[in-house]
Amino acid sequence: NISIRSRAKSIISSQTLQLQRRAYCAIRNPGNPWVVRQLRDVYVRKARYESYRCRSAYKLMEMHEKLNLFQPGQCIVECGAAPGSWTQVLARQLKGPQVPEPARSQALIVAFDLQHIAPVPNAVCLSEVDIRSAQCLASLREALTDRPVDWVLSDMAPSASGERSLDSAVCVELCELALQLCLRLGRPGSGFVCKLWDGAETRA
């Protein structure tokens, strides 16, 4: 649906402002339902204890434990990486002290986001990179030194608008952009992981 896709693109461009508003509201109103859920969530507490930046780290861990996705020495690009919890998981999995050489040195993790990403040890973090821009591909190729990619990951998702069909369309739009990167940067047989919200376009 062209109308929905047009609105989806508009929503993608406003994500940074929406996230800033959410953070401001959380500080100003500690009784906010979102803040209360965060305080009660066991994975939020676990992430804090294990020094992960947010609970989504455990989603990636669970996928890897079930499917054995990542192998020593691989090259991985992560789209929409802020605040960096998936990047932390990848860095510990592929560049941690338990990984033998030369695989540890060969592994390369490049993470980017439109927002600022605080540095993650053993990963290349690119801030203020817009996945919709031509410069995105150029920046990634420079960081990768033209090395072919084994995995492209995307946990990108919009802030929910309350309109299910629109939210799903925005999510599909983001996934399509990440998939295009995978097709351009990936080696033959490379893998792709993304988040989709259920909607008409995901069932088409």
Which SSEs are present, and which pair or pack?
Elements: H1 2-13, H2 15-28, H3 33-40, H4 42-49, H5 57-67, E1 75-79, H6 85-95, H7 103-106, E2 108-112, E3 124-126, H8 134-144, E4 149-154, H9 164-185, E5 186-194
Parallel strand pairs: 1-2, 1-4, 2-3, 4-5
Explained architecture:
This protein is an alpha/beta fold. The chain has a single domain, classed as 3-Layer(aba) Sandwich (Rossmann fold), CATH 3.40.50. Helices cover 50% and strands 14% of the residues. The protein is built from nine helices and five strands, in the order αααααβααββαβαβ. A five-stranded parallel β-sheet has the order 3-2-1-4-5, sandwiched between helices. Strand 4, helix 9 and strand 5 form a beta-alpha-beta unit. Helix 1 (2-13) crosses helix 9 and helix 5 packs across helix 6 (85-95). It is globular and about 50 Å long. The termini are close together. Residues 11-21 have low confidence and may be disordered.
**Biggest sheet record:** 5 strands, parallel
Q: What's the average pLDDT?
A: 82
Structural class: alpha/beta
Q: What gyration radius follows from the Cα positions, in whole Å?
A: 17 Å
Tell the overall outline. globular
**Strand sequence of the main sheet, in spatial order?**
3-2-1-4-5
Overall CATH architecture: 3-Layer(aba) Sandwich
Number of self-contained structural domains:
1
Number of strands: 5
The first-to-last residue Cα distance is: 12 Å
What share of the residues lie within helices?
40-55%
The percent range for strand residues is 5-15%
Give the CATH H-level superfamily: Vaccinia Virus protein VP39
* Spans of at least 5 consecutive residues with low confidence: 11-21
Helix tally equals 9
InterPro entries: RNA_methyltr_RlmE (IPR050082), RNA_MeTrfase_FtsJ_dom (IPR002877), rRNA-MeTfrase_E (IPR015507), SAM-dependent_MTases_sf (IPR029063)
Protein name: rRNA methyltransferase 2, mitochondrial
GO molecular function: rRNA (uridine-2'-O-)-methyltransferase activity
Keywords: Methyltransferase, rRNA processing, S-adenosyl-L-methionine, Transferase
